[in-house]
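Cross-posted from the bioinformatics board.
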Amino acid sequence: MDMVNIKINGVPVSAPKGSTILEAARIAGIEIPTLCFLKDINEIGACRICVVEVKGARSLVASCVYPINEGMEIFTNTPRVLESRKTTLKLILSNHDKKCLSCVRSGNCELQKLCRDLGVEDEEEFAGVRTEVEIDDSAAHMIRDNGKCILCRRCVAVCEKNQAVGVIGANERGFKTNIGTSFEIGLADTSCVSCGQCIAVCPTGALREKESIDDVFAAIADPTKTVLVQTAPAVRAALGEAFGMPIGTDVEGKMAAALRRLGFDKVFDTDFAADLTIMEEAHEFVDRVKNGGKLPLITSCSPGWVKYCEHYFPELTDNLSSCKSPMQMFGATAKTYYAQKMGIDPKDIVVVAVMPCTAKKFEIGRDDENAAGVADVDFAITTRELARMIDKAGIKFTQLPDEKFDEPLGLSTGAGVIFGATGGVMEAALRTAVETLTGEQLQSLDFTDVRGTEGIKEASYDVAGMTVKVAVASGLANAKALLKKVESGEADYHFIEIMGCPGGCVNGGGQPQQPGYIRNTVDIRGLRAKVLYDIDADMPIRKSHENPAIKEVYADFFGEPGSEKAHHILHTTYVKRGL
Amino acid sequence: MAKNIAIPFKGTAEQEALLRQVIAEHKSDKGALMPILQKAQEIYGYLPVEVQKIIATEMDISMEKIYGVVTFYSQFSLYPKGEYTISVCLGTACYVKGSGDIFDKLTEVLGIKGGETTPDGKFTLVDCRCIGACGLAPVLTVNDDVYGRLTTKDVEDIIAKYKG
């Protein structure tokens, strides 16, 4: 690799050619503060927080985009630099809604942290006219409050580049510049897919999920209700971050303990329903292959992906698996099978789902998601909301003992837990589908070709004399690229897994927010996915069809996978929405 | 919160054919959006949602991307020009004589904001800088007619004259 020699604050540094000043400084052990910068996604040098002095340059330069040259001398901490950064912050604050105490991001706001780190001593120094804003709360999953927007455009960049959606962008110019939609319609009326990636990257409280925390506390307090909670696989891989634990900490046991202490009547696991999904989806796949059904079969667990498909690829909705998502299957099973078993009226059961996802808030309100005549799932809260509930209740999360889920809807396998990472649904489905097709036990349960955080993965397997071609995509821009090939006939896969968020649910829009400088330097999704694969590796049972609770639910209630009863309760329909 | 654009779209099949031709000609050029929007505005006189939708679909870019560009440049308009353009001078002399209040009164009486056109297609309201009639400040023009030494009380009479 060609190296370039420079000096940073007088110290000689050697960095790869093509590095930016920001990257070179990191090699020298200096983290230059940034605000708008997101590596590979939003490299626009707009916010001017990362400015540094370069010897010989007339003005300060934005280190996030400025490449290094041989012999360059850079100063990152001069009074001129520090003063400039502080002035920039004060100017941002002059048009910022500074109700920090009641802000959902108080304590983990990137703007707040910079103001503290850089010593802003008067937030009102440039007080004056403020841009008028309207709050957009039209969507089921989120609230946009431009009063707290700092125009960094990270949300715009992820929406367009990672997700190929692009429903938000910068409108107007100068002082009137605002992030909004085309013709300023509410987000609910756009082709927004509710993925929440914009919320995950927002440095302030401008974008946030629509909370259901108070509703959940009210349900728990209502003595007439049986409140069941289910947790998605990816939640246990990230919840600890909200309590200062390192990225990649498995908190499954503490999470179960916390949920019990919050007062839920039963602490169940969406992983159980992931196993159920595999039973139905593997059956559907085998059925489509054997009986000439529509192929490729495409997974339907990710509601952001499903909505994207309905808007952008409406002609592919027949390829979507008719299986409800694991969350919905859980709710449907809880309010039919479990209600019957326990002798509870489904109307008195409240199902709360803890999800790494914001699109789940949209999904619970979809048509044909009410097997018992009432909504399958009553409230879907994000991992972040659960963390806030735990804080609100004064539960010392890190000091909790490790506890287990309740039975029977808390029993699951290694196949269920890997649903939270890109490739996991495919691998879990293959474990069951291959054994179903061949009638033999698999030698190895690890389908490593579909693991890893790359955006698009392909593999083919010889199964019972047939070559099964599969593909896995995460992030909707990757899904778009893959589906274009399917549409054109260039690709002839049999089975495709798509997750809306890059890296899958572990990197979902409802997960704890990590600041830009962490996102830029740490493989967050890889570390979180490792938690799930480690849990899988340690599980005594790693195939969905061997889960005893699943066997029981079929024996006692559903009959066979794909039975009429299973179809009525566990499957759903889609809408061709278009744009 | 949606932009309130109540003027019905009256585009013709000929205009649409012309627009599609323009898009086809420029589509593969780098930075094609600006020239296409300019031509589209020449064809229709403004850039309503119907026109932006055609451009978005044909160019495979998002509606928001187009809307962002259209609202960035003042040369683009989301509204058709009305039969009468009322232009209020907000230059220094007029402004200190109260033309800001007159502008506000017009928005109130017409029910539109600056840059917009009334739903009946009659009036477009804009502000302008000094038109060289400072002696008559505050001043407004309705197409080529000039009105000076105004107070907010005069606004309704002026509009009534053109409503006819």
